Amino acid sequence: MFIPFAIAIRIFRQLTNDHRTIGMIIGVPIIITVIFGYAFTGETYNNPIIIVNLDKGNVLLSQSLGDRIVEKLKSDDRITIYDKLNDYSVAKEFVLNRTIAGVIFLPENLSNSLIPILNVSVTIEIFYDEAEPAIGGSILGAVSEAFAESSNDIREEEGLTSLTTIQRVFAWGNEEIKGLDVTLPGIIGYISLFLILLLTVLLSVREDLEGTKARFFSAPINRWQVMLGYLIGMTIFGIIISAIVLFVSLVVFNAEVRGDLILVFGFVLYFAMGSVMLALFLARVARNEFQAVQMAVIVAIPSIALSGFMVPINTLPDWLGIFSNLIPLTYAVSGLKSLMLRGLGVEDIAIELLAITIYIILAFLGAVFASRETVA
Amino acid sequence: MSNTPEKVTQHAIITITNLTKNFGKLLAVNNVSLTIPKGEIFGLLGPNGAGKTTLIHCLMGIYKLKTGKITVMGYDIPKRKNLARQKIGFMPQELAIYLDLTPLQNALFYGRIYGLKDNETKKKVDELFQLLELSDKKNNLCRTLSGGQKRRVSLGISLLTEPELLILDEPTVGVDPILRQQFWHYFTELKKEGRTILISTHITDEAVRTDRVGLMMEGKMLAVGNPKGLMKENSVETLEELFIQFKKGGIK
Lengths: 376, 252
Hints:
The complex is a heterodimer of chains A (376) and B (252). Chain A has 13 helices and 5 strands. Chain A has helices spanning 3-17, 19-39, 65-74, 88-96, 133-158, 179-209, 212-216, 223-252, 261-285, 289-306, 318-326, 328-340, 350-370, and strands at 47-53, 79-85, 102-106, 123-128, 165-170. Chain A has a 5-stranded mixed beta sheet, sandwiched between helices. In chain A, helix 5 links the parallel strand 4 (123-128) and strand 5. Chain B is 35% helix and 26% strand. Chain B has helices at 52-59, 81-85, 103-113, 118-131, 147-158, 177-192, 204-207, 227-233, 239-248; strands at 12-23, 26-37, 41-45, 67-72, 75-77, 88-91, 165-169, 196-201, 212-217, 220-225. Chain B has 9 helices and 10 strands. Chain A binds chain B through residues 1, 3, 5-7, 9-10, 13-15, 17-18, 210-212, 214-222, 374-376, and chain B through 57, 60-64, 78, 81-83, 85-86, 88, 90-102, 105, 109-110, 112-114, 117-118, 141, 157-158.
Protein backbone atom coordinates (compact mmCIF):
# COMPACT_ATOMS: atom_id res chain seq x y z
CA MET A 1 0.00 0.00 0.00
CA PHE A 2 1.11 3.59 -0.68
CA ILE A 3 2.76 4.40 2.66
CA PRO A 4 1.14 7.83 3.19
CA PHE A 5 -2.28 6.12 2.79
CA ALA A 6 -1.27 3.64 5.49
CA ILE A 7 -0.39 6.54 7.78
CA ALA A 8 -3.59 8.36 6.87
CA ILE A 9 -5.72 5.27 7.61
CA ARG A 10 -3.96 4.81 10.94
CA ILE A 11 -4.59 8.44 11.87
CA PHE A 12 -8.23 8.11 10.86
CA ARG A 13 -8.61 4.92 12.93
CA GLN A 14 -6.90 6.53 15.92
CA LEU A 15 -9.31 9.43 15.93
CA THR A 16 -12.43 7.44 15.17
CA ASN A 17 -11.62 4.93 17.92
CA ASP A 18 -11.78 7.74 20.44
CA HIS A 19 -15.41 8.62 21.05
CA ARG A 20 -14.62 11.88 22.81
CA THR A 21 -12.56 13.07 19.88
CA ILE A 22 -15.38 12.23 17.53
CA GLY A 23 -17.70 14.12 19.87
CA MET A 24 -15.36 17.10 19.67
CA ILE A 25 -15.11 16.95 15.90
CA ILE A 26 -18.89 17.01 15.57
CA GLY A 27 -19.83 19.06 18.62
CA VAL A 28 -17.38 21.95 18.55
CA PRO A 29 -18.22 23.13 15.03
CA ILE A 30 -21.94 23.08 15.90
CA ILE A 31 -21.49 25.00 19.15
CA ILE A 32 -19.17 27.61 17.66
CA THR A 33 -21.37 28.08 14.61
CA VAL A 34 -24.42 28.63 16.81
CA ILE A 35 -22.62 31.01 19.18
CA PHE A 36 -21.11 33.15 16.45
CA GLY A 37 -24.28 32.97 14.40
CA TYR A 38 -26.21 34.67 17.17
CA ALA A 39 -23.43 36.85 18.48
CA PHE A 40 -22.46 38.82 15.43
CA THR A 41 -23.23 42.54 15.71
CA GLY A 42 -21.12 45.69 15.73
CA GLU A 43 -20.18 49.14 14.53
CA THR A 44 -16.95 49.78 12.65
CA TYR A 45 -14.70 52.83 12.52
CA ASN A 46 -12.37 54.64 10.11
CA ASN A 47 -13.81 52.98 7.02
CA PRO A 48 -12.00 54.43 4.01
CA ILE A 49 -14.46 55.91 1.52
CA ILE A 50 -14.42 57.93 -1.68
CA ILE A 51 -16.87 60.80 -2.07
CA VAL A 52 -18.22 61.59 -5.51
CA ASN A 53 -19.82 64.98 -4.94
CA LEU A 54 -21.41 66.22 -8.19
CA ASP A 55 -23.79 68.61 -6.43
CA LYS A 56 -23.67 71.92 -8.28
CA GLY A 57 -25.49 73.82 -5.52
CA ASN A 58 -28.15 76.47 -6.01
CA VAL A 59 -27.99 80.26 -6.03
CA LEU A 60 -30.51 80.37 -3.23
CA LEU A 61 -28.15 78.50 -0.90
CA SER A 62 -25.05 79.95 0.70
CA GLN A 63 -23.42 76.50 0.64
CA SER A 64 -24.48 73.48 -1.38
CA LEU A 65 -26.13 70.54 0.40
CA GLY A 66 -23.38 68.25 -0.96
CA ASP A 67 -20.61 70.37 0.56
CA ARG A 68 -22.45 70.55 3.87
CA ILE A 69 -22.77 66.73 3.94
CA VAL A 70 -19.06 66.35 3.13
CA GLU A 71 -18.20 68.78 5.95
CA LYS A 72 -20.21 66.71 8.42
CA LEU A 73 -18.70 63.45 7.19
CA LYS A 74 -15.17 64.76 7.75
CA SER A 75 -15.77 64.85 11.48
CA ASP A 76 -17.47 61.42 11.66
CA ASP A 77 -15.10 58.78 13.10
CA ARG A 78 -16.95 55.97 11.36
CA ILE A 79 -15.42 57.00 8.05
CA THR A 80 -12.16 58.31 6.67
CA ILE A 81 -12.25 60.16 3.38
CA TYR A 82 -9.74 58.34 1.19
CA ASP A 83 -10.30 60.54 -1.85
CA LYS A 84 -12.76 62.80 -3.66
CA LEU A 85 -13.47 61.96 -7.29
CA ASN A 86 -15.82 63.15 -9.97
CA ASP A 87 -16.27 59.87 -11.80
CA TYR A 88 -18.65 57.47 -10.01
CA SER A 89 -17.65 54.42 -12.07
CA VAL A 90 -13.94 54.99 -11.42
CA ALA A 91 -14.69 55.29 -7.71
CA LYS A 92 -16.67 52.02 -7.79
CA GLU A 93 -13.61 50.20 -9.10
CA PHE A 94 -11.82 51.01 -5.82
CA VAL A 95 -14.55 49.10 -3.97
CA LEU A 96 -14.50 46.18 -6.40
CA ASN A 97 -10.75 45.77 -6.01
CA ARG A 98 -11.19 46.17 -2.26
CA THR A 99 -8.99 49.22 -1.81
CA ILE A 100 -11.74 51.15 -0.05
CA ALA A 101 -14.88 50.28 1.88
CA GLY A 102 -17.42 52.29 -0.07
CA VAL A 103 -18.37 55.20 -2.31
CA ILE A 104 -20.78 57.98 -1.34
CA PHE A 105 -22.43 59.42 -4.42
CA LEU A 106 -23.97 62.87 -4.11
CA PRO A 107 -25.92 63.64 -7.33
CA GLU A 108 -25.81 66.79 -9.43
CA ASN A 109 -29.26 68.08 -8.44
CA LEU A 110 -28.89 67.39 -4.73
CA SER A 111 -29.18 71.06 -3.74
CA ASN A 112 -31.97 71.63 -6.29
CA SER A 113 -34.03 68.98 -4.50
CA LEU A 114 -34.37 71.54 -1.73
CA ILE A 115 -36.16 74.02 -3.98
CA PRO A 116 -39.90 73.10 -4.01
CA ILE A 117 -40.63 74.84 -7.27
CA LEU A 118 -38.10 72.77 -9.14
CA ASN A 119 -39.78 69.59 -7.85
CA VAL A 120 -36.57 67.58 -8.15
CA SER A 121 -36.27 64.22 -6.42
CA VAL A 122 -32.79 62.69 -6.24
CA THR A 123 -31.07 59.78 -4.55
CA ILE A 124 -27.84 59.70 -2.59
CA GLU A 125 -26.16 56.35 -3.24
CA ILE A 126 -23.90 54.37 -0.96
CA PHE A 127 -21.98 51.80 -2.97
CA TYR A 128 -20.28 49.18 -0.82
CA ASP A 129 -19.18 45.56 -0.53
CA GLU A 130 -22.17 43.72 0.87
CA ALA A 131 -19.81 41.00 2.10
CA GLU A 132 -18.90 43.53 4.79
CA PRO A 133 -22.33 44.59 6.08
CA ALA A 134 -20.94 46.03 9.31
CA ILE A 135 -18.95 48.47 7.24
CA GLY A 136 -21.93 49.22 5.01
CA GLY A 137 -24.04 49.85 8.11
CA SER A 138 -21.50 52.27 9.53
CA ILE A 139 -21.25 54.22 6.26
CA LEU A 140 -25.03 54.32 5.95
CA GLY A 141 -25.29 55.57 9.53
CA ALA A 142 -22.71 58.28 8.94
CA VAL A 143 -24.33 59.48 5.69
CA SER A 144 -27.86 59.41 7.15
CA GLU A 145 -26.79 61.53 10.10
CA ALA A 146 -24.78 63.95 7.94
CA PHE A 147 -27.71 64.32 5.56
CA ALA A 148 -30.29 64.79 8.34
CA GLU A 149 -28.15 67.36 10.13
CA SER A 150 -27.34 69.27 6.91
CA SER A 151 -31.01 69.28 5.84
CA ASN A 152 -32.00 70.49 9.30
CA ASP A 153 -29.46 73.30 9.14
CA ILE A 154 -30.80 74.37 5.75
CA ARG A 155 -34.39 74.11 6.96
CA GLU A 156 -33.54 76.37 9.89
CA GLU A 157 -31.51 78.80 7.78
CA GLU A 158 -33.50 78.89 4.56
CA GLY A 159 -36.81 77.20 5.40
CA LEU A 160 -36.38 74.56 2.68
CA THR A 161 -37.01 70.80 2.87
CA SER A 162 -35.29 68.17 0.73
CA LEU A 163 -37.03 65.43 -1.23
CA THR A 164 -33.84 63.37 -1.30
CA THR A 165 -33.69 59.70 -0.39
CA ILE A 166 -30.66 57.60 0.53
CA GLN A 167 -30.17 54.28 -1.21
CA ARG A 168 -27.67 51.50 -0.68
CA VAL A 169 -26.12 49.97 -3.80
CA PHE A 170 -24.44 46.59 -3.41
CA ALA A 171 -21.17 45.90 -5.17
CA TRP A 172 -21.68 42.22 -5.96
CA GLY A 173 -25.37 41.44 -6.06
CA ASN A 174 -28.84 42.82 -5.68
CA GLU A 175 -29.49 41.71 -2.15
CA GLU A 176 -28.17 42.57 1.24
CA ILE A 177 -26.14 39.87 3.02
CA LYS A 178 -27.22 39.46 6.62
CA GLY A 179 -26.71 37.44 9.78
CA LEU A 180 -24.86 34.15 9.66
CA ASP A 181 -24.25 34.42 5.91
CA VAL A 182 -21.75 37.18 6.65
CA THR A 183 -19.82 35.30 9.32
CA LEU A 184 -19.95 31.89 7.66
CA PRO A 185 -16.65 32.26 5.73
CA GLY A 186 -14.90 33.34 8.91
CA ILE A 187 -16.43 30.51 10.93
CA ILE A 188 -15.41 27.87 8.39
CA GLY A 189 -11.87 29.24 8.14
CA TYR A 190 -11.50 29.62 11.87
CA ILE A 191 -12.94 26.27 12.95
CA SER A 192 -10.88 24.38 10.41
CA LEU A 193 -7.74 26.21 11.59
CA PHE A 194 -8.42 25.75 15.28
CA LEU A 195 -9.56 22.12 15.33
CA ILE A 196 -6.96 20.89 12.86
CA LEU A 197 -4.23 22.71 14.74
CA LEU A 198 -5.33 21.25 18.04
CA LEU A 199 -5.92 17.68 16.85
CA THR A 200 -2.72 17.47 14.79
CA VAL A 201 -0.59 18.93 17.56
CA LEU A 202 -2.02 16.49 20.10
CA LEU A 203 -1.67 13.48 17.80
CA SER A 204 1.89 14.36 16.96
CA VAL A 205 2.89 15.03 20.57
CA ARG A 206 1.22 11.80 21.66
CA GLU A 207 3.57 9.98 19.30
CA ASP A 208 6.35 11.17 21.63
CA LEU A 209 4.51 10.48 24.87
CA GLU A 210 3.46 6.92 24.07
CA GLY A 211 6.90 6.03 22.75
CA THR A 212 5.52 5.11 19.34
CA LYS A 213 7.91 7.62 17.81
CA ALA A 214 10.86 5.32 18.58
CA ARG A 215 9.31 2.52 16.51
CA PHE A 216 7.67 4.73 13.90
CA PHE A 217 10.89 6.62 13.21
CA SER A 218 12.83 3.34 13.06
CA ALA A 219 10.61 2.02 10.30
CA PRO A 220 11.80 2.13 6.68
CA ILE A 221 10.14 5.48 5.99
CA ASN A 222 11.33 9.02 5.58
CA ARG A 223 10.05 12.23 7.13
CA TRP A 224 8.46 13.39 3.87
CA GLN A 225 6.23 10.33 3.93
CA VAL A 226 5.34 11.05 7.55
CA MET A 227 4.47 14.67 6.71
CA LEU A 228 2.40 13.60 3.72
CA GLY A 229 0.59 10.99 5.81
CA TYR A 230 -0.38 13.53 8.42
CA LEU A 231 -1.34 15.96 5.68
CA ILE A 232 -3.74 13.52 4.00
CA GLY A 233 -5.20 12.22 7.26
CA MET A 234 -5.82 15.60 8.86
CA THR A 235 -7.00 17.33 5.69
CA ILE A 236 -9.80 14.75 5.50
CA PHE A 237 -10.86 15.91 8.96
CA GLY A 238 -10.66 19.50 7.71
CA ILE A 239 -13.17 18.66 5.01
CA ILE A 240 -15.47 16.87 7.46
CA ILE A 241 -15.35 19.85 9.84
CA SER A 242 -16.09 22.32 7.04
CA ALA A 243 -18.92 20.14 5.76
CA ILE A 244 -20.51 20.06 9.22
CA VAL A 245 -20.27 23.86 9.58
CA LEU A 246 -21.79 24.35 6.14
CA PHE A 247 -24.51 21.78 6.79
CA VAL A 248 -25.54 23.34 10.10
CA SER A 249 -25.43 26.82 8.56
CA LEU A 250 -27.46 25.88 5.49
CA VAL A 251 -30.02 23.68 7.22
CA VAL A 252 -30.45 25.27 10.65
CA PHE A 253 -29.83 28.92 9.79
CA ASN A 254 -30.85 28.89 6.09
CA ALA A 255 -27.55 30.50 5.20
CA GLU A 256 -27.02 31.50 1.58
CA VAL A 257 -23.88 30.79 -0.40
CA ARG A 258 -23.54 32.77 -3.67
CA GLY A 259 -20.48 30.95 -4.97
CA ASP A 260 -19.58 27.41 -5.94
CA LEU A 261 -19.52 25.00 -2.97
CA ILE A 262 -16.93 22.77 -4.66
CA LEU A 263 -14.56 25.74 -4.94
CA VAL A 264 -15.22 26.56 -1.30
CA PHE A 265 -14.30 23.02 -0.26
CA GLY A 266 -11.20 23.07 -2.42
CA PHE A 267 -10.09 26.32 -0.86
CA VAL A 268 -10.73 25.09 2.69
CA LEU A 269 -8.80 21.92 1.92
CA TYR A 270 -5.86 23.96 0.67
CA PHE A 271 -5.90 26.14 3.77
CA ALA A 272 -6.17 23.03 5.99
CA MET A 273 -2.88 21.76 4.53
CA GLY A 274 -1.12 24.79 5.94
CA SER A 275 -2.77 24.25 9.32
CA VAL A 276 -1.55 20.63 9.42
CA MET A 277 2.00 21.72 8.60
CA LEU A 278 1.89 24.52 11.16
CA ALA A 279 0.68 22.03 13.78
CA LEU A 280 3.50 19.60 12.94
CA PHE A 281 5.95 22.48 13.35
CA LEU A 282 4.44 23.44 16.73
CA ALA A 283 4.45 19.82 17.88
CA ARG A 284 8.14 19.51 17.03
CA VAL A 285 8.88 22.67 18.99
CA ALA A 286 6.66 21.78 21.97
CA ARG A 287 7.96 19.39 24.58
CA ASN A 288 4.67 18.12 25.89
CA GLU A 289 0.94 18.19 25.30
CA PHE A 290 0.35 21.24 27.48
CA GLN A 291 2.88 23.34 25.65
CA ALA A 292 1.55 22.15 22.35
CA VAL A 293 -2.04 23.08 23.22
CA GLN A 294 -0.97 26.48 24.49
CA MET A 295 0.94 27.14 21.29
CA ALA A 296 -2.09 26.17 19.24
CA VAL A 297 -4.26 28.53 21.28
CA ILE A 298 -1.70 31.33 20.97
CA VAL A 299 -1.89 30.99 17.21
CA ALA A 300 -5.66 30.59 17.09
CA ILE A 301 -6.94 33.31 19.40
CA PRO A 302 -5.34 36.41 17.82
CA SER A 303 -6.60 35.10 14.52
CA ILE A 304 -10.18 35.78 15.64
CA ALA A 305 -9.49 39.44 16.25
CA LEU A 306 -7.09 40.20 13.42
CA SER A 307 -8.16 38.08 10.47
CA GLY A 308 -11.17 40.12 9.44
CA PHE A 309 -13.37 37.36 10.84
CA MET A 310 -15.04 39.50 13.53
CA VAL A 311 -13.68 42.97 12.86
CA PRO A 312 -13.08 44.27 9.33
CA ILE A 313 -9.33 44.68 8.82
CA ASN A 314 -9.46 48.16 7.32
CA THR A 315 -11.01 49.46 10.51
CA LEU A 316 -8.04 48.30 12.61
CA PRO A 317 -5.27 50.76 13.53
CA ASP A 318 -2.46 50.74 10.95
CA TRP A 319 0.07 49.03 13.22
CA LEU A 320 -2.38 46.23 14.01
CA GLY A 321 -3.23 45.93 10.33
CA ILE A 322 0.37 44.87 9.68
CA PHE A 323 -0.15 41.86 11.97
CA SER A 324 -3.36 41.07 10.10
CA ASN A 325 -1.39 40.74 6.91
CA LEU A 326 0.88 38.18 8.61
CA ILE A 327 -1.96 35.96 9.83
CA PRO A 328 -2.83 33.07 7.48
CA LEU A 329 -6.48 33.11 8.52
CA THR A 330 -6.76 36.67 7.10
CA TYR A 331 -6.26 35.27 3.62
CA ALA A 332 -8.51 32.29 4.25
CA VAL A 333 -11.36 34.54 5.42
CA SER A 334 -10.80 36.99 2.58
CA GLY A 335 -10.73 34.17 0.00
CA LEU A 336 -13.81 32.49 1.45
CA LYS A 337 -15.72 35.79 1.50
CA SER A 338 -14.93 36.29 -2.18
CA LEU A 339 -15.98 32.74 -3.05
CA MET A 340 -19.05 32.52 -0.81
CA LEU A 341 -20.42 36.07 -0.55
CA ARG A 342 -19.17 37.90 -3.61
CA GLY A 343 -19.65 34.88 -5.87
CA LEU A 344 -16.20 35.33 -7.38
CA GLY A 345 -14.00 32.66 -8.97
CA VAL A 346 -10.48 31.32 -8.44
CA GLU A 347 -8.94 34.02 -10.67
CA ASP A 348 -10.23 36.69 -8.28
CA ILE A 349 -8.52 35.23 -5.22
CA ALA A 350 -5.02 34.96 -6.66
CA ILE A 351 -3.49 37.01 -3.85
CA GLU A 352 -5.15 34.87 -1.18
CA LEU A 353 -4.02 31.66 -2.92
CA LEU A 354 -0.48 33.00 -3.19
CA ALA A 355 -0.43 33.96 0.49
CA ILE A 356 -1.73 30.53 1.54
CA THR A 357 0.82 28.82 -0.72
CA ILE A 358 3.61 30.78 1.00
CA TYR A 359 2.07 29.82 4.37
CA ILE A 360 2.04 26.11 3.44
CA ILE A 361 5.65 26.23 2.23
CA LEU A 362 6.91 28.11 5.30
CA ALA A 363 5.03 25.85 7.73
CA PHE A 364 6.27 22.76 5.87
CA LEU A 365 9.89 23.95 5.97
CA GLY A 366 9.44 24.84 9.64
CA ALA A 367 8.19 21.33 10.40
CA VAL A 368 11.05 19.71 8.50
CA PHE A 369 13.64 22.05 9.98
CA ALA A 370 12.35 21.56 13.54
CA SER A 371 12.74 17.78 13.24
CA ARG A 372 16.40 18.02 12.17
CA GLU A 373 17.59 16.43 15.45
CA THR A 374 17.00 12.96 14.11
CA VAL A 375 18.01 11.51 10.80
CA ALA A 376 14.65 9.82 10.44
CA MET B 1 21.85 3.38 -5.42
CA SER B 2 21.44 -0.39 -5.64
CA ASN B 3 19.62 -2.37 -3.01
CA THR B 4 22.49 -4.72 -2.43
CA PRO B 5 24.71 -4.34 0.63
CA GLU B 6 28.08 -2.72 -0.03
CA LYS B 7 30.04 -5.55 1.46
CA VAL B 8 28.83 -8.90 2.69
CA THR B 9 30.96 -9.65 5.68
CA GLN B 10 30.95 -13.37 6.34
CA HIS B 11 28.36 -14.04 9.04
CA ALA B 12 28.63 -10.52 10.55
CA ILE B 13 25.16 -9.05 10.92
CA ILE B 14 26.23 -6.00 12.91
CA THR B 15 29.61 -4.29 12.71
CA ILE B 16 30.28 -1.24 14.85
CA THR B 17 33.66 0.47 14.61
CA ASN B 18 34.79 3.20 17.02
CA LEU B 19 31.30 4.58 17.51
CA THR B 20 30.92 7.76 19.53
CA LYS B 21 27.63 9.57 20.09
CA ASN B 22 27.23 12.66 22.23
CA PHE B 23 24.32 14.80 23.39
CA GLY B 24 25.94 18.16 24.02
CA LYS B 25 28.67 17.51 26.55
CA LEU B 26 27.35 14.08 27.48
CA LEU B 27 29.17 11.19 25.80
CA ALA B 28 26.34 8.65 25.65
CA VAL B 29 28.37 6.13 23.62
CA ASN B 30 32.13 6.36 23.88
CA ASN B 31 34.31 4.72 21.23
CA VAL B 32 32.47 1.39 21.03
CA SER B 33 33.46 -1.35 18.59
CA LEU B 34 31.48 -4.57 18.26
CA THR B 35 30.76 -7.36 15.80
CA ILE B 36 27.71 -9.61 16.10
CA PRO B 37 27.63 -12.71 13.89
CA LYS B 38 24.55 -14.25 12.32
CA GLY B 39 22.46 -16.50 14.52
CA GLU B 40 23.72 -15.14 17.82
CA ILE B 41 21.75 -13.90 20.80
CA PHE B 42 23.80 -10.95 21.94
CA GLY B 43 23.04 -9.25 25.23
CA LEU B 44 23.78 -5.61 25.99
CA LEU B 45 24.01 -5.49 29.75
CA GLY B 46 24.35 -2.37 31.79
CA PRO B 47 22.69 -0.20 34.38
CA ASN B 48 20.17 2.49 33.43
CA GLY B 49 21.94 5.30 31.61
CA ALA B 50 24.81 3.06 30.45
CA GLY B 51 24.20 3.99 26.80
CA LYS B 52 22.44 0.80 25.67
CA THR B 53 19.40 2.54 24.17
CA THR B 54 21.55 5.21 22.51
CA LEU B 55 23.68 2.49 20.94
CA ILE B 56 20.53 0.75 19.69
CA HIS B 57 19.11 4.00 18.32
CA CYS B 58 22.41 4.56 16.49
CA LEU B 59 22.08 1.07 15.01
CA MET B 60 18.54 1.89 13.88
CA GLY B 61 19.77 5.08 12.21
CA ILE B 62 17.66 7.31 14.45
CA TYR B 63 20.63 9.44 15.48
CA LYS B 64 23.40 11.03 13.52
CA LEU B 65 26.77 9.63 14.58
CA LYS B 66 29.52 11.86 15.91
CA THR B 67 32.28 9.51 14.78
CA GLY B 68 32.59 5.87 13.87
CA LYS B 69 31.02 3.49 11.40
CA ILE B 70 28.09 1.10 11.58
CA THR B 71 27.02 -1.53 9.11
CA VAL B 72 23.92 -3.64 9.66
CA MET B 73 23.54 -6.62 7.34
CA GLY B 74 26.11 -4.93 5.13
CA TYR B 75 24.23 -1.64 4.89
CA ASP B 76 25.94 1.52 6.00
CA ILE B 77 24.04 3.27 8.79
CA PRO B 78 22.61 5.88 8.76
CA LYS B 79 23.22 6.40 5.02
CA ARG B 80 21.26 3.34 3.90
CA LYS B 81 19.25 2.86 7.04
CA ASN B 82 15.92 2.23 5.32
CA LEU B 83 17.28 -0.80 3.48
CA ALA B 84 18.56 -2.25 6.74
CA ARG B 85 15.38 -1.32 8.63
CA GLN B 86 13.36 -3.37 6.18
CA LYS B 87 15.07 -6.48 7.60
CA ILE B 88 15.09 -5.50 11.26
CA GLY B 89 12.40 -6.18 13.82
CA PHE B 90 12.69 -3.47 16.43
CA MET B 91 11.03 -3.44 19.82
CA PRO B 92 11.73 -0.14 21.57
CA GLN B 93 12.06 0.19 25.31
CA GLU B 94 8.85 2.21 25.44
CA LEU B 95 5.55 0.47 24.83
CA ALA B 96 5.50 1.88 21.30
CA ILE B 97 2.02 0.82 20.32
CA TYR B 98 -0.88 3.13 19.52
CA LEU B 99 -3.18 2.82 22.54
CA ASP B 100 -6.15 4.19 20.56
CA LEU B 101 -5.85 1.34 18.10
CA THR B 102 -6.54 -2.35 18.55
CA PRO B 103 -3.61 -4.81 18.38
CA LEU B 104 -4.78 -5.83 14.90
CA GLN B 105 -4.98 -2.19 13.73
CA ASN B 106 -1.50 -1.57 15.12
CA ALA B 107 -0.21 -4.62 13.26
CA LEU B 108 -1.95 -3.61 10.02
CA PHE B 109 -0.40 -0.13 10.24
CA TYR B 110 3.13 -1.43 10.70
CA GLY B 111 2.54 -4.17 8.13
CA ARG B 112 1.66 -1.52 5.56
CA ILE B 113 4.69 0.56 6.49
CA TYR B 114 6.89 -2.49 5.90
CA GLY B 115 5.17 -3.30 2.63
CA LEU B 116 3.12 -6.31 3.75
CA LYS B 117 -0.28 -6.92 2.20
CA ASP B 118 -3.14 -6.75 4.72
CA ASN B 119 -4.03 -10.43 4.33
CA GLU B 120 -0.39 -11.39 4.88
CA THR B 121 -0.35 -9.30 8.07
CA LYS B 122 -3.62 -10.82 9.27
CA LYS B 123 -2.27 -14.32 8.69
CA LYS B 124 0.92 -13.49 10.54
CA VAL B 125 -1.05 -11.84 13.36
CA ASP B 126 -3.16 -14.98 13.82
CA GLU B 127 0.00 -17.07 14.07
CA LEU B 128 1.94 -14.71 16.34
CA PHE B 129 -0.96 -13.76 18.59
CA GLN B 130 -1.74 -17.42 19.21
CA LEU B 131 1.85 -17.92 20.29
CA LEU B 132 1.75 -14.77 22.43
CA GLU B 133 -1.69 -15.70 23.83
CA LEU B 134 -3.33 -12.59 22.45
CA SER B 135 -5.78 -14.13 20.00
CA ASP B 136 -8.87 -13.10 21.99
CA LYS B 137 -7.57 -9.56 22.45
CA LYS B 138 -6.73 -8.58 18.91
CA ASN B 139 -9.85 -6.45 18.46
CA ASN B 140 -9.78 -4.78 21.89
CA LEU B 141 -8.36 -1.30 22.18
CA CYS B 142 -4.75 -1.51 23.37
CA ARG B 143 -5.61 1.02 26.07
CA THR B 144 -7.75 -1.68 27.75
CA LEU B 145 -5.04 -4.36 27.78
CA SER B 146 -2.84 -5.21 30.75
CA GLY B 147 0.81 -4.13 30.86
CA GLY B 148 2.02 -7.60 29.95
CA GLN B 149 -0.45 -7.87 27.09
CA LYS B 150 0.71 -4.54 25.72
CA ARG B 151 4.34 -5.71 25.82
CA ARG B 152 3.32 -8.85 23.97
CA VAL B 153 1.57 -6.79 21.30
CA SER B 154 4.73 -4.72 20.98
CA LEU B 155 6.87 -7.86 20.59
CA GLY B 156 4.39 -9.33 18.12
CA ILE B 157 4.62 -6.23 15.93
CA SER B 158 8.41 -6.39 15.84
CA LEU B 159 8.13 -9.99 14.58
CA LEU B 160 5.56 -9.30 11.85
CA THR B 161 8.01 -9.21 8.96
CA GLU B 162 9.93 -12.33 10.07
CA PRO B 163 13.06 -10.16 10.37
CA GLU B 164 16.58 -11.49 9.98
CA LEU B 165 17.68 -9.33 12.88
CA LEU B 166 15.70 -8.59 16.02
CA ILE B 167 16.69 -5.64 18.13
CA LEU B 168 14.90 -5.71 21.45
CA ASP B 169 15.44 -2.86 23.87
CA GLU B 170 14.67 -4.13 27.38
CA PRO B 171 11.76 -6.29 26.17
CA THR B 172 11.03 -7.83 29.54
CA VAL B 173 10.71 -4.64 31.59
CA GLY B 174 7.48 -4.83 33.57
CA VAL B 175 6.85 -8.39 32.43
CA ASP B 176 5.94 -11.05 35.00
CA PRO B 177 8.33 -14.03 35.49
CA ILE B 178 6.12 -16.52 33.65
CA LEU B 179 5.79 -14.30 30.60
CA ARG B 180 9.52 -13.58 30.77
CA GLN B 181 10.20 -17.33 30.59
CA GLN B 182 7.92 -17.55 27.55
CA PHE B 183 9.69 -14.66 25.88
CA TRP B 184 13.07 -16.28 26.36
CA HIS B 185 11.79 -19.62 25.14
CA TYR B 186 10.57 -17.84 22.04
CA PHE B 187 13.87 -16.02 21.52
CA THR B 188 15.67 -19.39 21.61
CA GLU B 189 13.25 -20.73 19.00
CA LEU B 190 14.00 -17.75 16.78
CA LYS B 191 17.72 -18.35 17.15
CA LYS B 192 17.20 -21.94 16.01
CA GLU B 193 15.62 -20.52 12.86
CA GLY B 194 18.86 -18.64 12.21
CA ARG B 195 17.70 -15.20 13.37
CA THR B 196 20.11 -12.87 15.09
CA ILE B 197 18.94 -11.16 18.25
CA LEU B 198 20.38 -8.12 19.96
CA ILE B 199 18.75 -7.71 23.33
CA SER B 200 19.44 -5.03 25.89
CA THR B 201 18.72 -5.61 29.54
CA HIS B 202 19.75 -4.53 32.97
CA ILE B 203 18.68 -7.85 34.46
CA THR B 204 21.75 -10.02 34.90
CA ASP B 205 19.70 -13.26 35.19
CA GLU B 206 18.60 -12.68 31.62
CA ALA B 207 22.04 -11.78 30.33
CA VAL B 208 23.39 -15.21 31.25
CA ARG B 209 20.99 -16.76 28.74
CA THR B 210 22.67 -14.99 25.83
CA ASP B 211 25.46 -16.42 23.67
CA ARG B 212 27.61 -13.41 24.29
CA VAL B 213 27.17 -10.35 26.39
CA GLY B 214 28.57 -6.82 26.14
CA LEU B 215 28.94 -5.04 29.46
CA MET B 216 28.26 -1.33 29.15
CA MET B 217 28.78 1.43 31.64
CA GLU B 218 28.91 5.20 31.17
CA GLY B 219 28.92 4.84 27.40
CA LYS B 220 31.86 2.46 27.27
CA MET B 221 31.88 -1.21 26.28
CA LEU B 222 33.80 -2.67 29.20
CA ALA B 223 33.95 -6.28 28.09
CA VAL B 224 32.46 -8.63 25.52
CA GLY B 225 32.28 -12.35 25.83
CA ASN B 226 30.35 -15.47 26.77
CA PRO B 227 28.69 -14.66 30.11
CA LYS B 228 29.79 -17.89 31.79
CA GLY B 229 33.27 -17.53 30.36
CA LEU B 230 33.55 -13.95 31.61
CA MET B 231 32.45 -14.99 35.10
CA LYS B 232 34.88 -17.90 35.13
CA GLU B 233 37.80 -15.81 33.91
CA ASN B 234 37.18 -13.29 36.64
CA SER B 235 36.39 -15.88 39.33
CA VAL B 236 32.95 -14.52 40.12
CA GLU B 237 29.61 -16.30 40.54
CA THR B 238 27.30 -13.68 39.03
CA LEU B 239 27.37 -10.87 36.48
CA GLU B 240 26.55 -8.42 39.30
CA GLU B 241 29.84 -9.33 40.95
CA LEU B 242 31.54 -8.81 37.61
CA PHE B 243 30.15 -5.27 37.44
CA ILE B 244 31.36 -4.59 40.95
CA GLN B 245 34.83 -5.78 39.95
CA PHE B 246 34.67 -3.39 37.05
CA LYS B 247 33.93 -0.51 39.32
CA LYS B 248 36.95 -1.46 41.36
CA GLY B 249 39.02 -1.73 38.18
CA GLY B 250 39.89 -5.41 38.62
CA ILE B 251 38.68 -6.93 35.37
CA LYS B 252 40.81 -9.42 33.43
